[in-house]
Amino acid sequence: MTIPARTEQQVLQELTPLERKLTKRVLEIERSKLHLRAAQPTDEILAAVKGLIP
């Protein structure tokens, strides 16, 4: 039995507003670090999560 593949758009549409906000922030952090060879955005991502979760 195969599971039908979902598109990225379908996955994003199924996210809650909080999940969308967090996803957007994580992508922003990752993009800002792409040019750095030894970038470790973990601390910034963790801070973003803590800032969004009540």
Q: Count all strands and give the number.
A: 0
What's the mean pLDDT score? 80
Multimerization state: single chain
The low-pLDDT segments are none
Structural class: mainly alpha
Give the fraction of residues assigned to helices: 55-70%
Count of runs of 4 or more consecutive helical residues: 3
Question: Strand-residue fraction?
Answer: under 5%
| Spatial shape | extended
SSE order: HHH
Backbone CA Rg: 14 Å
Cα(first) to Cα(last) distance is: 40 Å
The total domain count is 1
Largest sheet descriptor? none
Note down, in words, how this protein is organized.
With 54 residues, the chain is mainly alpha-helical. The chain has one domain (14-52). The protein has 3 helices and no strands. The chain has helices spanning 8-13, 17-33, 42-52. The longest helix is centred in the middle third of the chain and has 17 residues, at 17-33. It is extended and about 40 Å long. The mean pLDDT is 80.
